Amino acid sequence: MNFKNKVVVVDYGSQTTQLILRRIRELGVYCEVVEAKTSSAEIVKKKPKALILSGGPSSAFEKTSPRLDKNFLKLDIPILGICYGMQLICQLMGSKIKKGRIREFGKAKIQILKKNIIFDGFNNKKDYQVWMSHGDEVKDLSNKLEIIATSGGGNVSAVAAKNKKFFGLQFHPEVVHTKIGKKLLKNFIFKIAKIKADWKMEDFLNKQISILKNEIGNQKVICGLSGGVDSSVTAALLSKAIGKKLICIFVDH
Questions:
Q1: First-residue to last-residue Cα distance in the chain
Q2: Each residue's pLDDT tens digit, 201-244
Q3: What residue ranges in 18-123 does DSSP mark as E strands?
Q4: Residue 186: closest CA among 124, 134, 128, 118
Q5: How confident is the model at residue 175 (pLDDT cuts 50, 70, 90)?
Q6: Beta-carbon count within 10 A of 175 CB
Q7: Which residues are catalytic, by number?
Q8: Strand-strand pairing, 96-112 and 145-151
Q9: What is the pLDDT of residue 123?
Q10: Sign of CA dihedral 82, 84, 86, 89
Q11: Quick one: pLDDT at residue 12?
């Protein structure tokens, strides 16, 4: 669907990718997800106002791991990399990713080193609780990037490109354990990408129901219903659109 204020999330296999989408939608901004193999050219066709790279289980230094194509550097839209996504940005801009000496997992404290718009409203003298989940770390940072936050262990926790609106967070702002997560996402969406909050789930649902009504008309529909999220949501939408013309068949798998 065509939305003027759109965020695209690139999924690298994180368990919390859908949570990223939820957090953005809670801010009143439409967003959608694409696969990791999606090229920069395909993303440009979607005309997003911002791009978020999710975390993932891969190691950026392994040959078989998903990477960013070089053309991402030419994109003139804000990009936020989360965990693995941050490592991909750093790697693409000339930094090295290595296996960490100690894996950071769970609650951690970060220290903000430099004033930056993504940390707007934060106190540089305070430590902030975040949620880490990574075994690799950024080393030999490119001169195209600067470190704007580190963890208690001295690892790079946040970076910003010097001449691009590219940012990276080694922690997960989408989870509730990162106390400053919502504020960080708001700064990225509204202050960096300058996106307007003009989307509501209710409007989206009403539009989908209207589309279904027009496409189905007076016909009947059979829906295979397993009780899972996907089939249950499909059945609920169809029920609102066509009422008793929907026939659900329970698929016990």
A1: 32
A2: 776 777 778 888 889 999 999 999 998 888 898 999 999 999 99
A3: 30-35, 50-53, 79-82, 96-112
A4: 118
A5: very high
A6: 16
A7: 83, 172, 174
A8: antiparallel
A9: 87
A10: negative
A11: 95
